[in-house]
Amino acid sequence: MSNNRVSRRQFLNYTLTGVGGFMAAGMLMPMIRFAIDPALQTKAEGDFVQTSQKIDEITEEPIKVDFTFEQVDAWYKSDVTEAAWVYRDGDAIIALSPVCKHLGCTVNWAGDSAHPDQYFCACHGGRYEKTGKNVPGTPPTGPLDEYEVAEKDGFLMLGKKIPNTLG
Ligand code: FES
């Protein structure tokens, strides 16, 4: 006869511990998944957003292009509309963020009649060259951000914001 026999008390302990652990895991797993799931989802930030702007209608004169995308903030989804100033430079399409690098107001192309070939920020008189380079002596201390651009079926696609590469 073996000395390793399990007593009735031990058997009940093992069984109850096993069943209890199994049930606890069954209850906790969905809760843990619910808590961390949004953090595991891919952010829409890196994706390109379709615009209604035809590529072949973009000229050397900057135009404002609005685009809408779905923003996921934890469990809350909302449609966000943003804009870009878009122009053609040879074969390249340039898209600039309209957010002023001073305090975040919106800049407008030719917004100041004294400087019709620059972006103008009416909040504090900030100005930028067509490439987004900030004009020295005005409040902004850095250039406008760029958007990554792509083309799909002849239409402009805008990606994530990147630091200005145009100098
Ligand atoms: S926010 Fe644009 S110049 Fe101040």
TrEMBL record:
<feature type="domain" description="Rieske">
    <location>
        <begin position="86"/>
        <end position="158"/>
    </location>
</feature>
<dbReference type="GO" id="GO:0046872">
    <property type="term" value="F:metal ion binding"/>
</dbReference>
<keyword id="KW-0479">Metal-binding</keyword>
<dbReference type="GO" id="GO:0051537">
    <property type="term" value="F:2 iron, 2 sulfur cluster binding"/>
</dbReference>
<keyword id="KW-0812">Transmembrane</keyword>
<keyword id="KW-0813">Transport</keyword>
<comment type="subunit">
    <text>The main subunits of the menaquinol:cytochrome c complex are a Rieske-type iron-sulfur protein (QcrA), a cytochrome b (QcrB) and a cytochrome c (QcrC).</text>
</comment>
<keyword id="KW-1015">Disulfide bond</keyword>
<keyword id="KW-0411">Iron-sulfur</keyword>
<keyword id="KW-0472">Membrane</keyword>
<protein>
    <recommendedName>
        <fullName>Menaquinol:cytochrome c reductase iron-sulfur subunit</fullName>
    </recommendedName>
</protein>
<dbReference type="InterPro" id="IPR006311">
    <property type="entry name" value="TAT_signal"/>
</dbReference>
<keyword id="KW-0249">Electron transport</keyword>
<dbReference type="Pfam" id="PF00355">
    <property type="entry name" value="Rieske"/>
</dbReference>
<dbReference type="GO" id="GO:0004497">
    <property type="term" value="F:monooxygenase activity"/>
</dbReference>
<comment type="similarity">
    <text>Belongs to the Rieske iron-sulfur protein family.</text>
</comment>
<dbReference type="InterPro" id="IPR036922">
    <property type="entry name" value="Rieske_2Fe-2S_sf"/>
</dbReference>
<comment type="function">
    <text>Component of the menaquinol:cytochrome c reductase complex. The Rieske protein is a high potential 2Fe-2S protein.</text>
</comment>
<feature type="transmembrane region" description="Helical">
    <location>
        <begin position="12"/>
        <end position="32"/>
    </location>
</feature>
<dbReference type="GO" id="GO:0016705">
    <property type="term" value="F:oxidoreductase activity, acting on paired donors, with incorporation or reduction of molecular oxygen"/>
</dbReference>
<keyword id="KW-0560">Oxidoreductase</keyword>
<dbReference type="InterPro" id="IPR014349">
    <property type="entry name" value="Rieske_Fe-S_prot"/>
</dbReference>
<keyword id="KW-0001">2Fe-2S</keyword>
<dbReference type="InterPro" id="IPR017941">
    <property type="entry name" value="Rieske_2Fe-2S"/>
</dbReference>
<keyword id="KW-1133">Transmembrane helix</keyword>
<keyword id="KW-0408">Iron</keyword>
